[in-house]
């Protein structure tokens, strides 16, 4: 009898949601639809969060600074134990990719809704991740899958073999920090020394690696979903090339003008890699895509902000499926059940000045949200909501879906014209302007496009 057939009861029937904002509400909705008890935690700044009303339990775990609440492992675990939670969903950010936290959750006999700690740890070390991906046949950026030698002459030889420009990256880096582009041999030694020191200070890990610097890539990623029994599927590709300072601003699915068979090939590779490393839950393989080739850069071992565009094109509720596989159910979908229908776009609506990007927390005095066919808004805010200054500035995700990319763009323009937020500044005006940019509207712009476009407008 298989492990699945012997599953007498799901592993849990209550979930502590260790996050805040729109994603906390998104996860709460999925829990409620599955009949799971939702236990929400909050910091003092989020005591009046609107999702409090619909939570089964709502527990304050500490003061406003994230380090003392959402990032405080002991406080989250204590809340889980006292409320009798059976599982913890970490959402994204905060503790979601913290292997020690995942270990601590499971040590208490609770389910961590995510992969095993060993896979989180592996993907958190970019050298280990690259080694695992190369071994699984996932294409990586040219360059060795080993840490850089301390010997600068040896490093120079490696760089020469790869060919300039190269990029020196910290194995423990994240959030776009701990990397340096080197365009010629005479800059190399300095870049290695500075980046190593930065890596030691910022990530407590001095290991570096080096790879080819791709000059005009797009950011294309593959969403995967795996169960506990070695089954896995990929749900499509997303293009997240519209970035500012390595932060995604607009995401879409599918990735424009990449042939379906090319996407399918890389998707199958990602699933094969998941099977090889025993991955479970949802995850995202991030690639740079240039001249019709994919190059793996990292894997995110959690739910991502941009998951809705894949939900819209696949028709699959990713958070529901994530909860179901974590409960111990076998994946009900096979690869043949997964399609890609129409086109979806997502704008991240941030509480910030649309052109200086200065944060703009404070009271939302009035808000009107767009609607109509193919329009979805994932948000926890409403009129009278006070955007706290302590956290990420994203207040909403505006998502549209339509049969074609052009129709989705039109739908987004209308939705953006309907959306009003008063009392604080938002980047809605920036999105309206981007949706008039002919290059973006044609599709397929690279990861530098948005910054160049912004610089030209200054
Ligand atoms: P992080 O974990 O800090 O986000 P990534 O490895 O995902 O680091 O890289 C972040 C961004 O840096 C990428 O989206 C891309 O813009 C740029 N980048 C990283 N590696 C390369 C490379 N080899 N060539 C060109 N750009 C790169």
Automatic annotation (TrEMBL):
The keyword Repeat does not apply. It is an enzyme of class 6 (ligase). Acetyl-CoA carboxylase is a heterohexamer of biotin carboxyl carrier protein, biotin carboxylase and the two subunits of carboxyl transferase in a 2:2 complex. The keyword Lipid biosynthesis applies. This is Biotin carboxylase. Its EC number is 6.3.4.14. SUPFAM superfamilies: Glutathione synthetase ATP-binding domain-like, PreATP-grasp domain, Rudiment single hybrid motif. Pfam families: Biotin_carb_C, Biotin_carb_N, CPSase_L_D2. It catalyses: N(6)-biotinyl-L-lysyl-[protein] + hydrogencarbonate + ATP = N(6)-carboxybiotinyl-L-lysyl-[protein] + ADP + phosphate + H(+). It comes from Rhizobium favelukesii. Residues 130-327 form the ATP-grasp domain. PROSITE patterns: ATP_GRASP, BC, CPSASE_1, CPSASE_2. Keywords: ATP-binding, Biotin, Fatty acid biosynthesis, Fatty acid metabolism, Ligase, Lipid biosynthesis, Lipid metabolism, Magnesium, Metal-binding, Nucleotide-binding, Plasmid. Pathway: Lipid metabolism; malonyl-CoA biosynthesis; malonyl-CoA from acetyl-CoA: step 1/1. Transmembrane segments: none annotated. This protein is a component of the acetyl coenzyme A carboxylase complex; first, biotin carboxylase catalyzes the carboxylation of the carrier protein and then the transcarboxylase transfers the carboxyl group to form malonyl-CoA. InterPro entries: ACC_Biotin_Carboxylase, Acetyl_CoA_COase_biotin_COase, ATP-grasp, BC-like_N, Biotin_carboxylation_dom, Biotin_COase_C, CPAse_ATP-bd, PreATP-grasp_dom_sf.
